[in-house]
Amino acid sequence: MRIDKYLWAIRVFKTRALAADACKGGRVKIDEVSVKPSRIIKEGDTLVVRKGPVYYSYLVLQKTERRLPAKEVPLYAQDCTSEEELAKLQQPRESIVIYRQKGTGRPTKRERRQLDKIRGFNE
Fold first, then answer.
1. Are 46 and 52 in contact (CB under 8 A)?
2. Are 39 and 54 in contact (CB under 8 A)?
3. Alpha carbon separation from 5 to 12, 56, 108, 110, 119 (Å, rounded)
4. Maximum separation of any 2 CA atoms in the chain, in Å
């Protein structure tokens, strides 16, 4: 069975095209080697899929030719993702967002300089 079809079937990706694009982009690995979408998988393979900042690990238990209901996925693939990787989803994004009250208008030149100082743009 092709790896892109398998990732789609076990609901890692919403469409098979997204699964194929992830393979082409080097975000899917077997034994730490990037794979093509046409790579044939076998039972016992460990797949590592990068989605955003997280590396998900799956162990292939069985192959399937059809997209599975969510309840049946654990029969075909075991999620081996570590707790440290899943914790990355809970970390806040590093960005400075400054909110202004509605109706206050554009910042004055003085306020703009203060905002730039906070953001580190004053150099």
1. no
2. no
3. 10, 17, 56, 57, 45
4. 64
C-beta of residue 9 within 8 angstroms of C-beta of residue 47? no
73-121 pLDDT, tens per residue? 999 999 999 999 888 888 766 556 667 788 888 889 998 888 888 777 7
DSSP helix/strand/coil, 64: coil
pLDDT tens digits, one per residue of 1-49: 999 999 999 999 999 999 999 999 999 999 889 999 999 999 999 999 9
Token duo for residue 20: 């194929």
The backbone torsions φ and ψ at residue 48, rounded to the nearest 5 degrees and listed phi first, read -120, 120
Q: Which helix (H) or strand (E) holds 74?
A: helix 73-76
Q: Which domains does the chain have, with CATH numbers?
A: 3-87 (3.10.290.10)
Angle, CA 118 vertex, CA 110 and CA 91 arms, to 5°: 150
Tokens of 25: 């982009």
